[in-house]
Structures
1.
Amino acid sequence: MTYLDRPDTIKKRSDPRVILTECKSVIMLGMQYAQNIGSEISNPDFQIASYARHEDYHLVIPQRLKILSSSIFDFSSGQSTCVASTDSAPVLERDLAQRAGLGWIGKNSCLISPLSGSFFLLAEIFTNLELPPDEPFEADRCGNCRRCIEACPTGCIQSDRTLDARSCISYLTIEKKGDIPTHLRPKIGNWLFGCDICQSVCPWNKKILKPQFSGLPMTSFDPGVQSLAQILKMDENEFHNAFSGSPLLRTKRQGIIRNAAVVLGNFPDSKDYPVLENIIASETDPGIQTHTACALKKSDLDSPDIGSS
């Protein structure tokens, strides 16, 4: 995530006119997604973040933004210029959404809507049109609640409303390249991709009044995966075929195999030992070998001496 420190990305975060020179307004949008439901990939052996149980939003939201931008162009009689973004530019989405009145930034760093909770995705349209602004959401409705702070397995949510991404399970299982620090592996539990814990314990996600945003299409995502062992046996083509159109492609096969080995190390099962041993023998990626060897060592089995994990 070092790209966030680059001068060009800092400028984009601080001034929308770097993204669109004639920018006068930013239209903030949200798309709801269901929590803890939506796909047969949910399995007692492992968990994935709720948004990842839908079709990859990078394939869905940009198309809707394109349609909306076209409608704005027609409505303005061809006077509008629009630049749409959803994770495609270094934009302070939550801050802009708070200023647009969509909600407040909670202690877990998620934007929370008083109507819809926090299980929604953000997107934005930068435009040259001067639109009347909505009132910002000034209230902090977290109060004295500390449930997200206390529930986080790695303790990455700080009391001062900052988050140490280096130990966040979502970061570790999605964005982190290479080895996951040894002391954090047990705390990942059975999360294969992402994490919902800090949102699931939030009271605002337990008393949703009504959807505030349109919903992410409930495209059935069922790669037919029944176990972590099945994932570990996949070659590159099988992995891409199974997870085509899924957010899980983001971390690539190496990342998913690494994560699967970590989860198996946290919950060892003798039926999976031969699969892990085969990974040791067949994989050339040093990161995969290291994490697989660590999983075997946790199971008190002999494994090849490939170095310290």
Note: The first helix runs from residue 7 to 14.
2.
Amino acid sequence: MNNQIYLIVLFLALVTVIPTVSAQLSVGEEANQKLIEIKLDKSEIVNVKHVIAASGITGNVNLFDGVITESIIVTNDNGDEKEFGLIGYGGALESITIFPSNSSSIIKYNLKDVSTLYENLWTSKIQYSETFSVLFSEETDLIFLNNTIIQLENKKGVSVNYGGNATIQYYDKIPKIIEEVSLEEDKFNVEIITNSKIDKFNFNQESKSIKFQVNEKNKFVTVSMEEELVGDPYIVLLNDEKIMYTKSISKENYVSLSMKPQAVGEIIISNSQYHNDLTQITSNDTLPAESIPNDYFIWLVFGGVLIIVAIVVIIIMRKIKK
């Protein structure tokens, strides 16, 4: 019995004191991560960085899917490389073991098969169990996070709070179309960003509506304009049927509406109040009472009274004859 206890103590001591890069045992608890960062830079290779708080005990750090093993580097605050352990199953890496340290540990590695480019649109599918940040290059200003439009402006990126599944998309080259429109005496620019082919653009001042033809389906369409052109609240139609859209305000009085039409056809962006009023009027097949001429209404009543009087007179005359 004593020999077994000595063997267990000796085994734990060896694992703790003699770390190795190829270690396959998980020792310690989950590490305290101060920062988790992903960088998307219009490349199929994605960069990842974890910053781990100093700790006197061994800690484990979960990895993102798709790790390139050869790219893993662990350093301290001064840039000196540190030893670490790798934990995996079935050939896929799952986590890194960080050994006790008086300074922060910085883990860097690359991912493959996460980011792809198709028809001018980069798509990255990322999954993690904790809050992580996604950084972009300076030239990337417009992104879609799980189909929701986000204008980065002066921000470097976005934060995916509490982790989860994130599908991030952005254009390799911005496909922008600019149309000039007039509202009363003022002129405005309407910007349309899409990989889809657009034609038959039109702006109607009276109805405050924008119309254009979309010739490809399942592609993002983002319309940016001065808010007064259409006016909040909005309605977006595809072939006269409502479709979902997301709204982003990039600066004062400037709005971006993004949609992903599931079919080709005509897109209409209109003021919803105007549209509702118009529908209410055109759906009524009868003329309102006030549109009937007053003279005609008087003669109609007078005629009805005469008929009633005539009927009463006839009934009285018949009774007298009897």
Note: Helices lie at 2-17, 272-282, 294-321.
3.
Amino acid sequence: MSTSAQTPPDAPGVTHEWVDAGGLRTHVALAGPEDAPPLLLVHGWPQNWWAWREVIARTKDRYRIIAPDLRGHGWTDAPRSGYGKDQLATDLLALLDAMGLDRVTWVGHDWGAFTGCLAAMRSPERFERLLTLCVPPPFARDRSLKTLALLLSYQGPISTPLLGSFIVRRGFAARILKIARAKGSWDPADIRVYDDVFRARPWVTVGMYRTFLTRELVPLARGKYSASDLTVPTTVLVGDRDAITKSVTSEAFPQLEVRRVPDVGHFLPEEDPDAVVSAIG
């Protein structure tokens, strides 16, 4: 399935490649010296590599930046199936293989963070370290009823094939972007970079959340993963105004380094890129 008709937006020092990663034609934005330490930046829904533009600008002199688009997102191909999060982890590990990258520092936001945890638990030898942004880890089972109700309030409707497609085609991604940002505001052009892709291929959003609610949520709640499964050095950054990660604290997860970023909502790489860069080091 071909990607969006538009071409990837330009960013200083960024080039673009399409890589066959396990049979998936994957778009990757690249920046920085080829011999520098590799830094994998993995976005979440409803975004693509463009979410990292401010982080890339601040790190490309010191790292080799690899910023892929997830399956169905941005300019990566969008098959009708394969939106389980284990499959996304498989896609990205295949990308590392295809690009000849043995070990990386993985920085993930939203589903890119969740997928990073899954990949790290499966293949810890591929990680120098892991930095996750704005998502509870897979072994989190202490979500409040309020948080669960919030998640289901939007994930439920968009996980149904007909209703979900109808909602997504009418700018649902744009509404979520506006609602969940607490610091600063969006440029309308940036919202279009994200929203246009999902309007054109609503099955991606439906697939991401239908798979989560029908196949993944219950095993997670029953303890499919435990904190001991994650052996890679991991730092967690969350915005203190992000409703999804209210329960992610140092007290709740003493085995992780948890940092709360003040005055920030869910879209941390764009709301406070300096905080992300500081955590990367």
Note: The CA atoms of residues 168 and 193 lie 15 Å apart.
4.
Amino acid sequence: MAPSPAPQARVVLVMNAGSSSIKLVLCDRQGQRLWQQQRGWGVTAAPQAETAPDGSAAAADLPDLLHQWLLPLLAEADPAPGLVVHRLVHGGSRFTAPTALDAGVRGALAELVPLAPLHNGPALEVIRWLADQSATASLPQWACFDTAFHATLPEAAHTYAIPAAWRRQGLRRFGFHGLNHQHVAETVAASEPGVRRLISCHLGAGCSLCAVAIPAEGPPRSVDTTMGFTPLEGLVMASRSGSVDPGLLLHLLRGGLSAAELDQALNRRSGLLGLSGLSGDMRELRQAAAAGHGGAQLAIAVFRHRLRQAIGAMAASLGGVDAIALTGGIGEHDQALAAELEGELAWLAPLRWLRVPADEEGLMVRQCLAAGA
């Protein structure tokens, strides 16, 4: 009798829901991509931009997108996914590992939405929608968290110098982009065995750095990062301000600006977009700057200045640096920025400059399956 055929390997659908688009990646069990699709609603952000409509507009259109695009796509998928894995930007102090999404977990995640309003809200809406549809209600859903890799931050790195009563409320630095920083760290650890001190530079619509210690034995660990309590702290980003003097914000609030207006301005009208008055897309800014646009030139200069400062800070946290890895839409593709950084940071030599393509999805699949999904 001929042997029975081996069971078909489960395929995993990875979902990354943001403020203006949903990215779907179907992967095999090893995390290798089978196909990828992305759809937006409202104003779809460019790969390096984040000029989305306000949160309420995005949320209003999201159910229509899910019914008209996602539901038929899942019905026609062959092979059908046996698991859905979601990227959640903020896991707070509780969620530091891949987690199955039951009703209790969904409730706990709802409390974290204000900490990452551009991403956690839409992602949670997608999770609930899938759980409520008869066609997908039985499909297991898991989440991986961008904050999880930074759970190893030492106390001195994650603590704000604020009153003890505030710290007891859980107000601390969390860090973000951890999924890609972890992917970069593991990739470098495997391909560059001599690297022990790594700075991972995630540069795209959102930007952050991570100082990574890579021991001779054991997994890489995050020891410092530029983002904090929310993804608003740190570097200049496409439409986010990055770090701003708190006194400036108090000045605006005392002048009559509401908290909601301040939120919108800092998250959606600042960064490269606010500096240039033109765009949050670095590619557009490069072209405009070459044509003499003063705002574009200023945006690029401020972006590079803050980035250079932060790389120096991460090197100090590591006690030196062996390699700097560029990743993300800007990090992987902006040749001019890479050349500028290498020249301006030559004093850090000797070190290796690396490019590592982002692959959060593959990492998420492997993590969830290893956790028993």
Note: The two ends are 34 Å apart (CA to CA).
